[in-house]
Design brief:
This protein folds into 2 domains: about 40 residues, no CATH class; about 200 residues, Rossmann fold (3-Layer(aba) Sandwich), CATH 3.40.50. By secondary structure, it is of the alpha/beta class. It is about 40% helix and about 15% strand. The chain has 8 helices and 6 strands.
Length: about 240
């Protein structure tokens, strides 16, 4: 016990936990985010789209404009935060500068705000959206898989990272519309090991924009025999 305490103390001194928003060492120690920085995050509130979980402005509406235009293969999903410049910078650091420790906070908030609802889905497994092997090699990890592991551990739901693979390194999608994104991604994924008793899954990804990535992966899983698919994303862009 004493050795562990000394080790943790030295580690905290040399490598202090940094805030996912300001990037400075978190104060007070032991927290996952600075108390003032959490106020910069807009967590999704009702009214929210009944399909993708995106926050919408009209309480009279059940669906966002995107989900009114497109039918998806997944049942429905939730999103933790509204996409903003602050959130964008944080996710970019996670993906491109090795700051995967930020996912501890986001995973904690995912469980705190949506854990009961995810449990109520009764899913057999959590499946992270895969990245191409070249990106995985460069980054050293898949941010969706790290988040899925955090959620799975807390919810006691198995994580099947081998259920999906990405065999196509797609170009940047931000300049494409929904149809173009889906076409670009339609052949990018293939199913891996799908246990026969895996009938429902929770797909986990970082950002929900048009839903093309989640649609492509949902179709892939359904072709492999999965019957019901739900989704969870860290952030969703405002109603588009």
């Amino acid at each position: 016990m004493l050795v562990k305490m000394i080790y943790n103390g030295v580690t905290d001194l040399l490598f202090p936990r940094r805030c996912p928003i300001c990037e400075e060492p978190v104060m007070p120690k032991g927290k996952l985010i600075c108390p003032e920085c959490i106020r910069a995050i807009h967590f999704i509130r009702e009214p929210a789209c009944k399909i993708c979980g995106r926050e919408i402005g009209d309480a009279e509406e059940e669906l966002c404009s995107n989900c009114k235009r497109h039918r998806f293969s997944f049942e429905y999903g939730y999103s933790l935060m509204s996409y903003s410049d602050v959130v964008s910078r944080s996710i970019t650091r996670i993906k491109y500068t090795g700051a995967k420790e930020y996912l501890d906070f986001y995973g904690h908030m995912a469980i705190r705000l949506y854990g009961d609802r995810i449990k109520a889905m009764g899913v057999d497994a959590i499946v992270p959206v895969p990245v191409h092997k070249s990106r995985l090699k460069k980054r050293g990890y898949n941010q969706a898989a790290v988040l899925a592991e955090i959620m799975g551990r807390e919810l006691h739901i198995p994580v099947y990272e081998d259920a999906l693979y990405r065999n196509k390194k797609t170009a940047a999608l931000k300049e494409l519309n929904a149809a173009e994104r889906l076409k670009n991604l339609s052949s990018a994924f293939f199913a891996g090991e799908i246990p026969k008793d895996m009938r429902s899954v929770l797909l986990v990804d970082d950002i929900f924009t048009t839903g093309a990535t989640l649609e492509a992966t949902s179709r892939c899983l359904k072709r492999a025999g999965v019957e019901r698919i739900y989704c969870f994303t860290l952030a969703s862009k405002t109603d588009i």
